[in-house]
Amino acid sequence: MAERIAESELIINDRGAAYHLDLRPDELALDVITVGDPDRVGEVSKLFDNVEVKRSHREFVTHTVILVKSDFRWYPLG
């Protein structure tokens, strides 16, 4: 079994979301695709059928999208 992350290592905000991403577990998809530029997240999301979650916190922009009943999430890295 995986070891639990210490509370000092994973800060949870008032929404119950991880602080740096502002995402709750129910807002995460199983498959994740990363893009290099935060501005690219919206452009890539246009290729999918539906955007279920849009979050932006600090330098992180996250969209959860639907494509043929599959969830994906975009994260800019750089």
Set down the secondary structure blueprint.
Blueprint: E1 31-35, H1 38-45, E2 50-57, E3 60-67, E4 70-76
Parallel strand pairs: 1-4
Antiparallel strand pairs: 2-3, 3-4
Overview of the structural elements:
The protein is mainly beta and 78 residues long. The protein has a domain at 29-76. 10% of the residues lie in helices and 36% in strands. The protein is built from one helix and four strands. It has one helix spanning 38-45, and strands at residues 31-35, 50-57, 60-67, 70-76. It has a four-stranded mixed β-sheet with strand order 1-4-3-2, with helices on one face. β3 (60-67) and β4 (70-76) form a beta hairpin. The longest helix has 8 residues, at 38-45. The radius of gyration is 13 Å and the shape is globular. The mean pLDDT is 85.
Rounded to the nearest angstrom, the distance between the terminal CA atoms is 32 Å
Can you summarize the main beta sheet? 4 strands, mixed
The SS-based structural class is: mainly beta
Number of alpha- plus pi-helical segments: 1
How many beta strands in the DSSP annotation? 4
The dominant shape is globular
